[in-house]
Amino acid sequence: MTAAADTEPEDAPSKSKMPFILSAVLLIAGLGLGYFGMSSGLLPMTDHATEEETAPVKASDLPDVVFVTIPTIMVTMPPGAHHEHLRFSAQVEVKSQYQEDVEFLMPRIQDLMNGYLRALKAEDIEGVGAIFEIRLQLFRRIIMVVGQGKVNGLLVTEFLLK
Fold first, then answer.
1. Which pLDDT band holds residue 83 (cuts at 50, 70, 90)?
2. Which of 28, 41, 130, 150: disulfide with 98, CB 3.0–4.6 Å?
3. Residue 120 in contact with residue 105, Cβ under 8 Å?
4. Any transmembrane segments, and where (predicted)?
5. Which of 112, 28, 110 shows the shortest CA–CA distance to 73?
């Protein structure tokens, strides 16, 4: 053999095993913390349901509410929109003792919904989170018409862009 083959180059850096050891230690620590969190209940990813939680819901346990249907509203989209029409329908969640009040005020609710939906710009309707903002604004306006404490929520049942 030659002398050049027997000697290793002195300039080559020696590979450190420190990153491998550090990765192994962090992996073991992470596994240990994960096991501790799961077994102690700090991470609620296991199903430890009691009999009370799995019991079927009784009708007497449900809140005393009714759903009043708002007739479907068709709105022509503003110029520059990607769609021609918006078809919107919803239901109002009402405490049962106020059902007749809300049904009596339904023409006003429809009027405010028509006015609000027609005043929106195309980007307001076609945006990513549009339905959430529209629901919030309409619910706020319904409360102003019906009165505070009578309406629990607005459930959008149809939001269709054609």
1. confident
2. 150
3. no
4. 20-38
5. 110
Q: pLDDT confidence of 115, banded at 50, 70, 90?
A: very high
Q: Kindly state the average pLDDT of the residues 82-98.
A: 92
Identity of residue 55: A
Tell me how far apart the alpha carbons of residues 96 and 150 are, in angstroms, rounded to a whole number: 9
Set out the domains of the chain in order of their start, with CATH numbers.
16-55 (no CATH), 59-161 (3.30.479.30)
Half-sphere exposure of 160 (CA within 13 A, CB side): 9
Q: What is the DSSP letter of 47?
A: -
Structure tokens at 109: 């609710």
Contact yes or no for 146/95 (Cβ under 8 A): no
Question: Which residues 6+ apart lie within 8 Å of 156 measured at CB?
Answer: 88, 89, 90, 131, 134, 135
CA neighbor of 77 nearest in space, from 122, 109, 40: 122
- Mean of pLDDT values over 130-147: 93
Q: Which of 155, 141, 145 is nearest to 104 (CA)?
A: 145
DSSP string, 91-151: EEEEEGGGHHHHHHTHHHHHHHHHHHHHH--HHHHHSTTHHHHHHHHHHHHHHHHH-TTTE
At residue 33, the pLDDT reads: 85
